Amino acid sequence: MKLLISGGCGFIGSALIRYLLANTAHSVVNLDKLTYAANPAALADFNQHPNYCFIKQDIGYPLGQLFFQHQPDAIIHLAAETHVDNSLKQPDLFIKTNINGTANLLQGARYYWQGLDHERKARFRLLQVSTDEVFGDWAGRQLKASETSPYAPSSPYAASKAAADHLARAWQRSFGLPIIISHSSNNYGPWQHAEKLIPRCISQALQGKPLPIYGNGKAIRDWLYVKDHARALVQIIEKGRVGESYNIGANCEKTTLAVVNAICQALEKFAPEYSPNNPQGFAGLIKFIQDRPGHDLRYALNVEKIQTELHWQAQESFNSGIDKTVQWYLNQLNTQ
């Protein structure tokens, strides 16, 4: 199968491509405009791989010719602006990329798909990769968001992803384009951009700088190791049912404070030479700061559907995932 992956130089996209090229026979066309959050180095080992092709292009530009030239059997749409803090500062950028860009990609995919022969048309899929944030705040509830839970986005980022999901469903309903949607929880692991919580805390701690935590640190997220997410996306594109949505999570709810403490403990284990000279070690660097505007207190996903239908479940525990992540960043530091 030839897969066209938008945003393939991003954190999740590059993890997906690494997994595909190392573990499957699928070929990959990576479409990425290389924003500040892209990291081509994450795919450097595969630049000469016979099943890999990179194209620098914005999803906001016409894509029809590109689709017809490369003839993908499926599209996995990951290209997006993702950082919530940035969406509060520049919501227009998120609207442009996540909404208008998605509409442009859907329209290009529609015309390409309509021109395929009967057999290839029947096999074609477009996977819209979304987020648990579209379901809004689940604080104070015992339940978790299911695939049929109503949307209630809080931030401009979440709203832009919700809009992209609605557009994908509209293109299926109106034009027949075969759509599948996935919603994942918070990802972490190697190659994540430095603006995100875990790599930022690792970097700050190693420099002896404060580890800022919003509010009281009690916001809860479900933490998913990025390789597990990649495996899930492959399962969905290979075996998922058209018109369905699949939640992807690790059943690993942690407060922000617990995550940062876990990072500190891993650093004490793997990099004690960097530990600050105070009784609390790295944990003594934790600093609580003013909360983010409209900060949701809890995201939680019910993942029974993907476990039951597609026989997927997360393999990495949080502790092992954090250990691997910290060790990877330390190795990067030592090779610079």
Short account of what is shown:
With 336 residues, the chain is of the alpha/beta class.
Could you describe the 3D structure shown?
The chain has helices at residues 11-23, 64-70, 84-89, 91-114, 118-123, 156-175, 197-206, 226-239, 256-270, 304-309, 318-335, and strands at residues 2-6, 27-32, 52-56, 74-77, 125-131, 179-184, 186-188, 211-214, 220-225, 245-248, 253-255, 286-289. With 336 residues, the chain is of the alpha/beta class. It has one domain (2-192, 223-252, 299-316): 3-Layer(aba) Sandwich (Rossmann fold). The strands form three sheets. It has a seven-stranded parallel beta sheet with strand order 3-2-1-4-5-6-10, sandwiched between helices. A three-stranded mixed beta sheet has the order 7-9-11. Strands 8-12 form a two-stranded parallel ribbon. Helix 1 links the parallel strand 1 (2-6) and strand 2 (27-32). The longest helix is centred in the first third of the chain and has 24 residues, at 91-114. The protein is globular, with a radius of gyration of 20 Å. 46% of the residues are buried. The mean pLDDT is 96.
List the SSEs and their pairings:
Layout: E1 2-6, H1 11-23, E2 27-32, E3 52-56, H2 64-70, E4 74-77, H3 84-89, H4 91-114, H5 118-123, E5 125-131, H6 156-175, E6 179-184, E7 186-188, H7 197-206, E8 211-214, E9 220-225, H8 226-239, E10 245-248, E11 253-255, H9 256-270, E12 286-289, H10 304-309, H11 318-335
Parallel strand pairs: 1-2, 1-4, 2-3, 4-5, 5-6, 6-10, 7-9, 8-12
Antiparallel strand pairs: 9-11
Question: Which characteristics define this entry?
Answer:
single chain, 336 residues, alpha/beta, Rossmann fold, seven-stranded parallel beta sheet, three-stranded mixed beta sheet, 11 helices, 17% strand, EC 4.2.1.46, dTDP_Gluc_deHydtase
